[in-house]
Structure formats: structure tokens, C-alpha cells
């Protein structure tokens, strides 16, 4: 019996190690990629590249008066449910941190209206009320589109499936008065992954 | 107990006990679909809340029926107008289906020597398409047009993989095109409508869209080609009411068997050909609708199962060979009586997998009604050509802006 004990214990040990739950902290700038899909590290890279391009090229590079921007949502034209509002949030934050532009808070417009109505509803002291018609109009509008192309390896006899994913984020800065596109750039992420067809 | 059976059981006591425990487990497993059947019965008895309660009593079905549970829940929640929850459930179903891309050896081996009921239900190709279809409808109804487009793209990918099986899913295909058109992706919308026009018996139902989109894309030869198919007079309006009309019920899979002596049983699921009657929709006050597009779901699911036929036959043959070898091996070791007991057990175990998404309608119809801009309070008069039944539905009032599409879902 003792002779066979180690033979029985070894698989049990392997099983126990395999079943252990593990967690670890991941640094925000660490690149963690599980498959060919869109990951949070892609978002960081995309935002950094785009903000750098936007601030280092005309018209913003030569602006000295901190022009006012409005950031509209990025249209998701991929075949995955990607929250593009996270990209716009990060772009907005990076632009504000640069100190080179001012940004209209478009997402809070309804709340601003509600708060203004409340202040003029009779409960707020007149000398502390905000003044109406003092909001700043945006000079530029930032819009974008996230696209993807997925290519699967053709079906044939093989043990692994390869997938090629291509993501492209295109951003445009439009002068609201003239309707002209004053700046446009895009950033691409191309990734190949392979996953086994067979598992236990 | 007969002396022969007693002898048989005694003969296989050691290996046989294990086999019988397994058989008992399997028998329990095959009986677990009862909750789904009960929920389905409640749903068709016009008690969707009770059907949902039945489905939400917990994950009693285990991993094997998890996909069915999620799909059924998605349809019931859609019917109840809880579109966000419906989408959540169907997105989970979608994740499950994606996981099935990887073949599980343990599962395949398990079902190879026992029954198909032991493996996780993976959904017919058509059912996978209808997961995307219901998600498209849910997202359009929620006004989340980007998310609807994501589902449209995934549905299109599925079409690319199984074009023959899904060819007649006209409703889903028109919905895909609508998702593209809704976010002004004219090129993609045109491509889907064009292929649909080629596959339809008559391109009239998509002619108006093809003429409009081709015109915007500057493809004047296409405009000239499809203009003769335009309905006369062509209904026009500043905006559009889009109705998703579900009617009837999808047929259930039936068990089929071929028995060969001494105890060989080939079992397989099949669908009996059926056709859900077309639905006529009229709005009051009267506005003319564009030509409708509909899918007879029974025909599509039948073709999907047909497409899997070769794989089913191959696995069934391997299972029959495996069971025969097992019975003979036990016979050689423990005698004829033991072999007889095992043969009877394995014969009874060979049950065709008749699991399916039961709460789907028999027909899905896409009705588009151009309307003038402004506030609308409409009544729908629905009638079925097959059984002469009628139903009136009062739509909640809605405002329509120029260029806007308003989506509503009804079940008849």
C-alpha cells in the first residue's frame, strides 16, 4: 500500500495545485493580453498616441487661448461589445491634464439645466445663484470611430485556431463654425492569437 | 426477479454495480429537462411571469442545459418588455456558445459510451443565429444602435459559416441590414440587402431599400435594376415604425429510432416539416406598410439539423460500436446473462437528444410602416392566415422625428 501511496498522492497534488484560486495586482501600465480581442492596455496606448498627435499638430499646437472642445462619443463599428465611452473619458482626462484646452461637459448638460432651474426655483439666495447664459460655446468638436476586421484561419485539419484582429481608431477635430475637419489621425492595433480546438 | 436476471446481476456484480450507478445517474440527467418543459408550457399558456419564475428557481439544470436556460430566459424577458435583462441573458448565452468552439474530450468520451444527453447543449446553428437576432431586437428597442450593430456583425459572420442552413432566415438578414442602415453604414447595408434580394423568391420586399441606398452610393445601374420592383404606390413618410412580430411556436424535436438485432439502437432527433401561417398586420388609423419580410423558423431549424446530419450519424455509429464492444466484453467475462442485462441497459440508455429552444415563435415578421413626423397613437390589428385568429394591440403613444425609426415588438 505504502509503495503505491506516492502514485496516488501525486495526481491529487497536481489537481489541488491546478484548482487553487489565485489573484494578483496588475499595474495600470502593464500589458496583459489573453486573446486577440480588445484589451484595456490597448485603450491606454490608443489614448496616449491620439492625445499626443492632437496636441502636437495644428490647429491646437499653435493655439494660445486654450480653445474650447466638446468630445462626442466614439462610434463602435467593431464586432465586439466595447465600451467606447471609456476611450472618450480617458481622452477627455488626458486633454484636461495637458492644460492646453478647455472642455465642455456635454454629458452633464441635463444635470446643469436641472441645477440651474433649482437655483431659480426660489430656494436659493439670489446673490449665490449662478448667472444664466454664461456657458461657453465649443469651438471644436472631437468625434471618432473604432473599427475592427477579424480574420479566422481557414477551416482545415489542425489542432489550433489562429485569429488575426485589426483595430483602428480614427479621430477627427471639426471646427464647428466652418464645418471643416482641422485635424484627423488614426491608430491601429493588429494582433494574432491562437487557441486550441481541443480541451479536456 | 427472474432467475436469468438474478444470475446476470450476480455475474456482473463487481463491474456491473459501477455500470448501474452510471446508468442511474444518466437516467436522472435525461429527466432534468422537466423544468424547461414546464416553463415552456406556462409561457404558451400566456403566463410569461410564471414561466420566468420557473426558470429562475435556480440553476437546476447544471452546465448541460445552461445554454437552454439562458436562451429561454432571454425570450421570456423580451416578451415581458424587459429588454435590458433579456439582452443580459442572451449575451451570457452568446458567451457560452463561444466557449463551445473548443471541443471537450471528457464530454465527448462521456457521451460516446452513454448518451448525448450527458453533453452540454450547444444549440443548432439556427438557434445561435436567433440569439443574435433577439439581441439585435433588444438593442434596437433600447436605442443602443451601436450594440445592435455589433450583433449584426456577429450574425453576419455566422451566415458566412453556414450559408446553406441559414439562407431562409430572411427576418434575421433584413434585421442585419436594418442595423447597418440605422447607423448610416450604407455600404454594408447595401451588401446585405443585395444578397437578400438574390436569395428571395422576389426582390420586392427589399427593393425600396436597395433603390434608396444605391441612389445615395451613386450606383445608378442598381437603381435602374430595382426600380421596377418597387411597390406601387410606394409608402413614404418622414420617419418609420418598425414592428417585430412574433407568432405561433417553433416545432419541437422528435425522437427517431432505428433498431437492429440483437440490441443495436440508432437514435437521432428530427423535425417534422411544418409551416407557421403568415401574419397580416394593419394599423389604425390606416397607413400603408412596406412589403413585409418573414421567416418560417421551422424550415430554418430543420435545415440546420440537416446540416449536422453527417456529424450526428458519425457519432451515433461510434457510440453503437462502443456499446456493442462493451456488451460483448462483459459477456465474455461474466457470461450471457450479464451480457443480456448490459445490452438491455445500454439499449434503454440510447435516447435521442431532443433538447431545443422551445419558446421561440414559429414565425418572425418584420413590418415597416412609414409615418409622418409627430405624435402617434396607433392600434394594431393582427390576423393569422392559417387559423383565422385575430388580436388587437394598442401601442403606447410615441413621438416620431423626421428620419427617426421607432421600434416595437409584439407577440401574436
Label this structure with key terms:
heterodimer, A: 200 residues, alpha/beta, Rossmann fold, five-stranded mixed beta sheet, elongated, B: 412 residues, alpha+beta, Serine Threonine Protein Phosphatase 5, Tetratricopeptide repeat, four-stranded mixed beta sheet, three-stranded antiparallel beta sheet, 17 helices, 12 strands
Total of DSSP H or I helical runs spanning 4+ residues of chain B: 17
- Give me the CATH superfamily of the domain at 37-107 and 136-196 in chain A: ABC-type transport auxiliary lipoprotein component
Describe the sheet with the most strands of chain A: 5 strands, mixed
Please tell me the overall pLDDT of chain A.
Answer: 86
Q: What is the helix/strand order of chain A?
A: HHEHEHEEEE
Which two chains touch over the largest interface?
Answer: A-B, 16 and 16 residues
Kindly name the structural category of chain B.
alpha+beta
Structural commentary:
The complex is a heterodimer of chains A (200) and B (412). In chain A, 30% of the residues lie in helices and 30% in strands. Chain A has helices spanning 2-19, 40-56, 84-98, 109-119, and strands at residues 68-77, 102-103, 140-152, 160-175, 181-196, 198-199. In chain A, helix 3 links the parallel strand 1 (68-77) and strand 2 (102-103). In chain A, helix 2 packs across helix 3 (84-98). Chain A is elongated. Chain B is built from 17 helices and 12 strands. In chain B, a hairpin with a 5-residue loop joins strand 9 (379-384) and strand 10 (390-394). In chain B, the strands form 4 sheets. In chain B, strands 6-7-2-12 form a 4-stranded mixed beta sheet. In chain B, strands 5-9-10 form a 3-stranded antiparallel beta sheet, with no helix packed on it. Chain B has one domain (3-411): Tetratricopeptide repeat domain (Serine Threonine Protein Phosphatase 5, Tetratricopeptide repeat), CATH 1.25.40. By secondary structure, chain B is α+β, with helices and mostly antiparallel strands. Strand 6 of chain A pairs parallel with strand 1 of chain B.
Amino acid at each position: 500500500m505504502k509503495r503505491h501511496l506516492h502514485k496516488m498522492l501525486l495526481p491529487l497534488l497536481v489537481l489541488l495545485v491546478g484548482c487553487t484560486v489565485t489573484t494578483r495586482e496588475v499595474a495600470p501600465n502593464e500589458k496583459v493580453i489573453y486573446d486577440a480581442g480588445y484589451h484595456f492596455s490597448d485603450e491606454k496606448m490608443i489614448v496616449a498616441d491620439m492625445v499626443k498627435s492632437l496636441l502636437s499638430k495644428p490647429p491646437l499646437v499653435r493655439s494660445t487661448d486654450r480653445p474650447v472642445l466638446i468630445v462626442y462619443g466614439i462610434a463602435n463599428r467593431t464586432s465586439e461589445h466595447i465600451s467606447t465611452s471609456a476611450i472618450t473619458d480617458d481622452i477627455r482626462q488626458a486633454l484636461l491634464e495637458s492644460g492646453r484646452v478647455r472642455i465642455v461637459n456635454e454629458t452633464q448638460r441635463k444635470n446643469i439645466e436641472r441645477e440651474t432651474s433649482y437655483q431659480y426655483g426660489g430656494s436659493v439666495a439670489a446673490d449665490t445663484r449662478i448667472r444664466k447664459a454664461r456657458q461657453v460655446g465649443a469651438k471644436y468638436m472631437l468625434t471618432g470611430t473604432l473599427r475592427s476586421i477579424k480574420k479566422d484561419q481557414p477551416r482545415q485539419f489542425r489542432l489550433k485556431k489562429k485569429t488575426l484582429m485589426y483595430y483602428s481608431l480614427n479621430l477627427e477635430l471639426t471646427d464647428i463654425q466652418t464645418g471643416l475637419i482641422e485635424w484627423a489621425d488614426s491608430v491601429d492595433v493588429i494582433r494574432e492569437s491562437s487557441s486550441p480546438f481541443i480541451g479536456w | 426477479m427472474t432467475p436469468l436476471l438474478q444470475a446476470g446481476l450476480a455475474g456482473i456484480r463487481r463491474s456491473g454495480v459501477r455500470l448501474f450507478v452510471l446508468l442511474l445517474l444518466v437516467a436522472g440527467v435525461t429527466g432534468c429537462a422537466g423544468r424547461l418543459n414546464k416553463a415552456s408550457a406556462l409561457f404558451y399558456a400566456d403566463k410569461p411571469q410564471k414561466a420566468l419564475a420557473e426558470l429562475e428557481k435556480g440553476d437546476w439544470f447544471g452546465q448541460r442545459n445552461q445554454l437552454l436556460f439562458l436562451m429561454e430566459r432571454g425570450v421570456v424577458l423580451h416578451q415581458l418588455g424587459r429588454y435590458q435583462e433579456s439582452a443580459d441573458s442572451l449575451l451570457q448565452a452568446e458567451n457560452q456558445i463561444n466557449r463551445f468552439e473548443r471541443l471537450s474530450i471528457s464530454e465527448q468520451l462521456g457521451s460516446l459510451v452513454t448518451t448525448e444527453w450527458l453533453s452540454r447543449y450547444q444549440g443548432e446553428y439556427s438557434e445561435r443565429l436567433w440569439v443574435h437576432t433577439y439581441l439585435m431586437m433588444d438593442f434596437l428597442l433600447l436605442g443602443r444602435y451601436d450594440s445592435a450593430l455589433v450583433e449584426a456583425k456577429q450574425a453576419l459572420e455566422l451566415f458566412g459559416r453556414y450559408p446553406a442552413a441559414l439562407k431562409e432566415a430572411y427576418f434575421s438578414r433584413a434585421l442585419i441590414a436594418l442595423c447597418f442602415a440605422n447607423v448610416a453604414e450604407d455600404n454594408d447595408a447595401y451588401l446585405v440587402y443585395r444578397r437578400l434580394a438574390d436569395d428571395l423568391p422576389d426582390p420586392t420586399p427589399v427593393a425600396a431599400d436597395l433603390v434608396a441606398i444605391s441612389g445615395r452610393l451613386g450606383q445608378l445601374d442598381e437603381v435602374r435594376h430595382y426600380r421596377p420592383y418597387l411597390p406601387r404606390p410606394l409608402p413614404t413618410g418622414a420617419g418609420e415604425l418598425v414592428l417585430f412580430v412574433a407568432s405561433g411556436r417553433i416545432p419541437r424535436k422528435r425522437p427517431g429510432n432505428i433498431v437492429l438485432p440483437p440490441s443495436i439502437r440508432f437514435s437521432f432527433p428530427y423535425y417534422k416539416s411544418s409551416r407557421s401561417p403568415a401574419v397580416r398586420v394593419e394599423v389604425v388609423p390606416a397607413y400603408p406598410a412596406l412589403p413585409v419580410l418573414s421567416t418560417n423558423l421551422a424550415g430554418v431549424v430543420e435545415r440546420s439539423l440537416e446540416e449536422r446530419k453527417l456529424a450526428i450519424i458519425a457519432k451515433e455509429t461510434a457510440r453503437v460500436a462502443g456499446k456493442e464492444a462493451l456488451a460483448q466484453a462483459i459477456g465474455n467475462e461474466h457470461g450471457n446473462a450479464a451480457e443480456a442485462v448490459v445490452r438491455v441497459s445500454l439499449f434503454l440508455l440510447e435516447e435521442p437528444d431532443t433538447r431545443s429552444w422551445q419558446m421561440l415563435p414559429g414565425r418572425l415578421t418584420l413590418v415597416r410602416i412609414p409615418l409622418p413626423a409627430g405624435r402617434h397613437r396607433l392600434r394594431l390589428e393582427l390576423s393569422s392566415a392559417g387559423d383565422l385568429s385575430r388580436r388587437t394591440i394598442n401601442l403606447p403613444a410615441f413621438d416620431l422625428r423626421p428620419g427617426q425609426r421607432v421600434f416595437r415588438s409584439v407577440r401574436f
